[in-house]
Amino acid sequence: MVSSLISFSRSLAPRWLLIAAAAFLLSMFFLIGNLYTSQVELRQNADARLVSIGEARATEINDFLTERRQAAARLAGSEDISNYFSNLDLGMSVKYGLFANLAAIEGRFQATLDQEKYQGQATYLRLGFFDRNGVAQVDVGSSSAAASSPARNNLAEPSIQIDDKRRLIVASAPVLQKGKIRGKVETVSSLNLLSSLVATNDLGQPREFLLGDDGEVLLPIEREHSTVATQGPSLAALPSGRIHALSNLSAPELKGYLALRSPVAGTRLSLLRLAGEDELYGRTLSSASVFYLGLFAIVLFMLAIGFERMRQNAARLQIKFVESNRHRAELAENNLALSQEIRRREAIEADLHRQSEALDKSNSELRIAAAAFNAQEGMIVTDAKGVILSANRAFVSLTGYAVEELVGQTARLFRSQRRDTEFYRGMWNSVQLTGGWQGDMSLRTKSGENCARWLTISAVKDETGEVTNYIGSYYDISKLKHAEEKIQELAYFDQLTGLPNRVLLIDRVRQALNANIRSKCYGALLFIDLDNFKTLNDSLGHHMGDMLLKSAAQRISHCVRADDTVARFGGDEFVVLLANLGTQKAKAAALQAEAIGEQILAAFTDAFQLDTYEYPCTPSVGVTLFSPEDRNVDELLKRADLAMYDAKTAGRNGLRFFDPAMQTMITARAALESDLREDLKKGRLLLHYQPQVDHQGRLLGAEALARWPHAQKGMISPSEFIPVAESTGLILPLGALMLKTACHQLARWSTDPATERLTIAINVSALQMRQKTFVEEVRAIVEQTGANPHRLKIELTESTLVSNVDDLIAKMDKLKTIGIGFSLDDFGTGYSSLSYLKRLPLDQLKIDRSFVKDILVDPNDAAIAQMIIALSKSLGLSVIAEGVETEEQYAFLAQHGQLNYQGYLFGRPLPPGDFESLARAFSPRRRSKRVRGPVNRTFA
User: Fold this and answer.
1) Three-class SS of residue 687?
2) For residue 841, what are the β-bridge partners?
3) How far apart are CA 863 and CA 856, in angstroms?
């Protein structure tokens, strides 16, 4: 029995592929049956899901409508409406009491209208409150959204109506007062609010539709070309709550669709949902699918038969392949023996070829060695003891010795006495240890002349490593030595004066500091600057300036000691280093340094002879002492520089010692500059606006004043940071930022009726006006911000008129063409030229606050102010007085003309928001509320 099973199994083994194919075919039929059963269950589940979604969507619409009824009821029961009827019952009239109640109801309705949102849209179009006669007492919202049906005042409970024609949802609720209906509240909403509850698919065809009872499609709105709109009555007549096929309708577009109509409770509306059979049920298993699956199984069976035949053929081929491999192995053994013989013969030929190449290479090296030995560089060959065996022609020409004179001698024959015995001992030790040496060597010729050469010594060893010979090569480096000396001179000395330059000075200062640590003595640095040197260069030329620098260098050098250093620091600046004053007392050291400084000042007493010119020149000298504790060279130079500038500030041609207070001031100024630069990058500076009014107290505009709210120091005064900005060049980015901020403010003001006519005056520095691109920058800012250029006024100071007035006038004319006005600030305090004033295209002169301050007590200030007013009239310019702080000052100025004013009497500089509040107080719409008088000073 067992043997029979084994034999049966062996008989089936070759046919395993056919058996597997048959099993696969049976399993496929089983899977198809299960798949069909699953499709039936999926259709039932899809029907149930469609019905549940339709009912849920209808419920959502009903909830929305119910919320509108409840909202109307809440408004009808509000306290404001109850108070209205209570006051009405008390006999109050609209004029003396009920108006406030109606205003409160209107306010509540308006707040509800503004605040109530649904899906990001306004919930209500209109809210109305009607009395029992149907008369609207409060009506808020769009008048076009009023209910078209007559008002019903006998309404007992909240209701809702759908206006199909105008697409409105009207909710009404009765107003009950002591159990009686006293009126009603009516809310009107757009039917489009329900659009968010009606879904559409991605193909553009609506999948859900809101129908009226007559079949009209209310939602979605875009339904002009929809087949559902034309078939609306038929679809509205479908029984609710069941899925219907639309194959019986006349519209071919709806063939293959299923429909479900779900009524909306409490209304005449119903929700229609459409779905294609393929979308709802998916694709089921068809008879064609069954056929192809069966065919697939048959194909697999046929393939199994083909693979079995291929397997049998492969077995036969494998037997033939084994036999073929045996024959190939025998042939390979024969080929191997033949290859070994060929390789043996090739090795013999390669060995002969290598020997030939080695011989050729040896001959070539001998020729190269002979050529190298006779090269342009001097070479000698010695034995192991240093006795010269041979020398080439270049070496004979270099030393002047003949070859016969050199052979048998040693290198001592031409050794220079500039090197000591220790040097040569170290050189030969290096040769013994490393097999060579190279370095700078002075060679003595037969005539006794010493010449610089670069010597290279190489040891030659035999096969055992023993030294047999030494080869010495001498290279000419005289040009290199000369170049090094020239580079040294260029690197450390000034080419004009021959004095040490900045690099060498700093090195010598460091050496002096190190030496003073040991000696504990004081030293000093004198920083010298030639006064008005730039004037000489500009007037007589740079060649005259060079002559003055040379002569000044000579005079200074004659005033110092032999071990002191006079250096040209750069430009017209010289530094004298008194390395060691020989004392450990600061006072004694200061007296010595002062004595040398006075000698230098005295040396400049006589005028300098520059060709045919006699030019007087004076120096400003700054002195700083340094003690053994001082280590920072840059700090010492900075101290001397500060002392020199102090001497210049004191009137030039003088000597000043460094004061630590200077360093404190400079450090604080540097910190302020750094913070200002950082805050400018981050745009932290802002503008405050000071009102400007006319002679009748009307607000004309404002002057924009820069303000800096520092993160640690609080608000910093412009008098502190404006000079820093001007001296460091930061006035350019600061001015551009302030101009752009002012233009942005003008653009914002143009949208407000209270500020749309106001002007802004902005200060522009002289440095800004001198920029070639200033006009283009202003135009670009005006265009970018959208500011009205006719509302922008640029204020110039008199310092702007000092240089290149023609260029200034050309720039002002270009800006005037686009509407920008100009005012001359601080008139009378600086450079005033009536000829330039007549040519400048100005619109206004500003009387400086320094004249206004004492105008009542100083006759001169009063006369100057009157002169400016009279001059402005003659030139056709307007006048504005700044710094007006008292009524008396204002009254005095008002006697002499119709001026404009600016000052604390009319208002301090204010942030933008506070200034806008001030501007609204001047608005024509509120003029009746202003204080009577020539000037409104409510916000002063």
Assistant:
1) strand
2) none
3) 11
